[in-house]
Amino acid sequence: MTSRRSARTWLAVAGVRFGNWASRRAGRGAGTVVGGSIGLAIDRNLLGKLARGRTVIVVSGTNGKTTTSAFVAAGWGAPVATNETGSNMPAGHVAALVRSSAVRVVLECDEAWLGAVLDAVKPAIVVLLNLSRDQLDRSSEVRQLAERWRRALEHTSPTTALVANALDPLVVYAASAARRVVWCAAPVAWTGDTESCPRCTAAVQHDASGWWCECGFRQPVATSYLADTDVVINAERCPLELALPGSFNRGNALLALSALEAIGVAPRESAGRLARVHDVAGRYATRRLGEQVVRLLLAKNPAGFGATLADLAGAGALWIAINDHVADGHDPSWLYDVPFEVLRGRTVWCLGTRRLDLATRLWYARVEAAVVDDGLPPVHGGVTDVIANYTAFRELLEASEPC
Amino acid sequence: MLTIAQVYPELLGTYGDGGNGLVLAERARRRDVEVRLVTSRFGEPLVDADIYLLGGGEDGPQRLAVSLLREASFRARIDDGATVFAVCAGLQLLGTSFSVEGDDEFAGLGVVDAVTRRGARRAVGDFVTVVGDTIMVGFENHGGMTNRGDGVAPFGAVQRGRGNGDGHDGFRANRVWATYAHGPVLALNPWLADDLLCELLGWKSVEPLASVADRLYNERLRVLTRRGNRSPHRPGRG
């Protein structure tokens, strides 16, 4: 860190370290939230002070934040400070910046905290992936969130550039308030929240030129896009090979590489590094759960679930776990926005605190479902895909081991 | 042939309420009723249907839905015999007026004598009401306080949650059923879906249709009427 620190900041940093140490010692996880909260209580400007003099890339959006942040960190090709544990609010950001003094920083940011985090860290780049309905019982309805993003982005510093998804009208609505935007075309599977224009509420139309509305609001021209097995970033074409599955992750990679290109990292160098990302915080990892070999997949809202189901090949059994703890949201009505009908012909084993809601949804979709009230489903041969929402995923990750 | 229309899901479908149409259609089909489940998208003419389902929505889309429904003579369709099942924003726009953003008042469709004002805070959480003599379970997420006019019957009596804000939930007027319950409420309450089917098809009673939906209803009933008693199940453990 280049800046001199006040006694208060020094004390706050010590508080972060102590909090993290005490929390780990008490066996309560990585302790990133506890330490960060102590630090912010001592010095509420701590995040900005810790970020000063560093090059920060902030990643936000409803889906793909953690994976895209991991892609940016891997693609940079140098030591990076990042909140890879998924604590994506200021306490987690503070903990990440205390843990590592690397000058390159990637911060995954909760959608609702974007404005406050931009004010504090003054990032070089803000990556905006997508916006769609998620946990409506504890966060804003999605149009309100886009409006809040827009207001926050109107006041970004002139040194901040946006890297934003041109195919998501809600993202474009928010991002067009900013001065500098690099538009990327990352495919979106879910359009349920953007059929009505974010600017005027009329029907959004689609044609060969992309989406548009009669009010004049339309899809910007993207300078970064996917082209078969390649990416084109600012007129430079290079191959993109990923170890992670799914078309959705190719879109995430496109935004990550565009962000790095915007600060001078050549795509042909960064793209090669992304193939080394095999799993992200346990997602996509093959693990052993009891006697069963599983591949763990995280999906927690209609857009994420739709993308995950679309990329699932095979006809075998599938496990799905749905919880309703605070971090998941208490209202699983979004299950009716997920196109489970694509699973007809397969058997789904239903787990989690809301397994009956899931089984009911599947019954109405005419998909065979079995409710697992205790323990785990019977063992199947081969690798079984397991889709889980937030806390269910964490429980399954903790209950399983690498294999 | 029973025609079920999901109305403007792009505007009124924020909380999975589209599930209500699916549930109604499936419960009819599995009893050998021929069903057409259609989606009326905005920008297209509103289809002719036996029942129109209106869901929840955000403020701007809710206002647009009112003007589209007015152009589509929605009120006349109800007078001509169509049934309406409305949830949340769908409930509010059937009334005479509603104010959702700030305190600006907007004219509703005036199908039912009811006025919705903005409450001091949002009501978000599990929702339990008594409809007739049966407990209905659901989830509410709205900012409205709805006053029914004289003679307008409520849909249910609130046991847990806010509903209209006066101890009652929604309203029931002729062929109009309206509640604040999301869930989707017909998925959580199979008996309510069957009551609605009986009304639509002129049946006095309906053959039972056993499924996991009954278990879900009983489980939600148990959880919501005994506070804090959550299912202990954790995947991967035990």
Low-confidence stretches of chain A: none
Query: What is the CA-based Rg of chain A, rounded?
Result: 21 Å
Pair with the most extensive interface?
A-B, 52 and 44 residues
Q: Strand order, main sheet of chain B: write it out.
A: 2-1-3-4-12-11
Distance between the termini of chain A: 40 Å
Structural class of chain B: alpha/beta
Characterize the overall form of chain A.
globular
The tally of helices of chain A reads 13
Explain this structure to me?
- The complex is a heterodimer of chains A (403) and B (238).
- Chain A has 403 residues and is α/β, with parallel strands linked by helices.
- Helices cover 35% and strands 20% of the residues of chain A.
- Chain A has helices at 7-25, 32-42, 46-51, 65-76, 90-99, 114-121, 142-154, 169-175, 247-262, 267-274, 302-311, 355-364, 390-399, and strands spanning 55-60, 80-82, 104-109, 125-128, 161-165, 181-185, 205-207, 210-212, 224-227, 230-233, 236-239, 286-289, 292-298, 318-321, 347-351, 368-371, 383-388, 401-402.
- In chain A, the strands form 3 sheets. In chain A, strands 2-3-1-4-5-6-9-10-11 form a 9-stranded mixed β-sheet, sandwiched between helices.
- In chain A, helix 4 (65-76) packs across helix 10.
- The radius of gyration of chain A is 21 Å and the shape is globular.
- Chain B is an alpha/beta fold and 238 residues long.
- Chain B has a single domain (2-225), classed as Rossmann fold, CATH 3.40.50.880.
- Chain B has helices spanning 19-29, 59-71, 74-79, 89-94, 185-188, 190-201, 212-225; strands at residues 2-7, 35-40, 51-54, 83-87, 97-98, 106-107, 114-131, 134-148, 156-160, 168-169, 171-173, 176-179.
- A 6-stranded mixed β-sheet of chain B has the order 2-1-3-4-12-11.
- In chain B, a hairpin with a 7-residue loop joins strand 9 (156-160) and strand 10.
- Chain B starts with a strand and ends in a 13-residue tail after the last helix.
- At the A-B interface, helix 7, helix 12 and helix 13 of A face helix 1, helix 2, strand 7 and helix 7 of B.
